[in-house]
Amino acid sequence: MPKVATLGQFIIEKQADFPYAKGELSRLLRDIGIAAKIVNREVNKAGLVDILGAAGQTNIQGERQQKLDVYANEQFISALQSGGECCIVASEENEDIILIDSEVSKSAKYIVAIDPLDGSSNIDVNVPVGTIFSIYRRKSADGPALISDVLQKGTQQVAAGYIIYGSSTMLVYTTGCGVNGFTLDPSIGEFCLSHPEMKMPKTGTIYSINEGNYIHFPDGVKQYIKYCQVEDKATNRPYSSRYIGSMVADLHRNLIKGGIFIYPGTASAPKGKLRLVYECNPLAFIIEQAGGKATDGESRILDLEVIELHQRTPIFIGSKEMVLIAEAFLHETSVTL
Ligand code: AHM
Ligand code: MG
After folding, report:
1. What confidence category does residue 316 fall into, taking pLDDT thresholds of 50, 70 and 90?
2. Among the four residues 4, 84, 179, 306, which has the most C-beta atoms within 10 Å?
3. Is the pTM value of this prediction over 0.90?
C-alpha cells in the first residue's frame, strides 16, 4: 500500500527547509490546518441553514446562528490565539490588527494575515469559497508587536497558503520551497498529500475576469480580452472564459490547468477590488513558487510597498507566458502574437 503523508507529518518532515524557528512555524501551520477543518465542517452545512435557522436566528439546539464569514474569522483567530506562536493577526474582516497579548504570545515571532472566507457571496449558492493566509516574521525586537510588523512586502512572507472548500476540501501551501497540496479525507479527518510539488503550466487556455465590468476596463485589458477571443490555432485561441467569483477557486483551477486571472483597476477604482495583504500577496507567493507570475500590470506584486492594512491592488496572475502577454497589451507595446 502506498504511504499516505498527512499534513502534520509532511510539515514535520519538511521543517528542516524552514529558514527560522522551525518548530514554531510547524505548529502555526498545524493550527491553521485544524481551524480549516472546523470551518470546513460548517461550510459543508451551509445549505442546512434554512432547516436549522438563518443567520442571526436561533437554531433548534438553541444556539445562535452566525454568518459563516464571521464564524470562520472567529475560528482562525481563536486557533492562532491559543496556539501561542503568533503575536498579531490581521484579518480582512477586522478594521484593525488584533494584538495577541497573552504572556506566551506577546513574544511570539510570527504575524498572520488572513482572509477567513473569501468569495463569501458564493456561500449561499453552494459554490466554492476559500481561506487565504500569509505568515511573516515579526520585525520589532521586543515589547508589543507593531503595525509595522504587518506592513511588510510580500517578499518577506515565510509561508502562505489557501484552503478551498470545493467538491473536495484542499489546503495548498508554500514555505518558499515549492507548493504542495493536501486533500481532506473526511473519513479520517486528515489533510493528505495529494498534489506534491505543484507546478503551474507555462501557458494555458483559460482567462478569468469579470467581463460584466468590461466597459470600465483600461484599454489594454479590453484589447487583451479581445486577443483571448480571437481564433488562432497555433496558440489554441479562442481561450475559454471561466470566472467563479471566488479568487481562490479561480486561481486553484488555473494553477492546475494553466490560465490567467485578472482583476484590473478602473477609472472609478484605480486600485481594483482585491486586497494586497490578505489576497494578492499570499496568492502571488504561491503562484510564483509554482512557476507562475503575478503583477499589478507594472510591478511584481510581491515587491509592492505595503502602506496600509486594507490596501487594494490591481492583479494579473497566473501562467507566466499569459501574464507577460497581458502586460504587453497594457504597455501598448507591439506584440507579435
Ligand atoms: P470578498 O473578500 O468580499 O469575498 O471579495 C473577494 C472576491 C474574490 O474572491 C473574487 O475574485 C472577487 O471578489 C469577485 O468580485 P466581483 O464580483 O467584483 O467580480
Ligand atoms: Mg476576500
Report:
1. very high
2. 179
3. yes
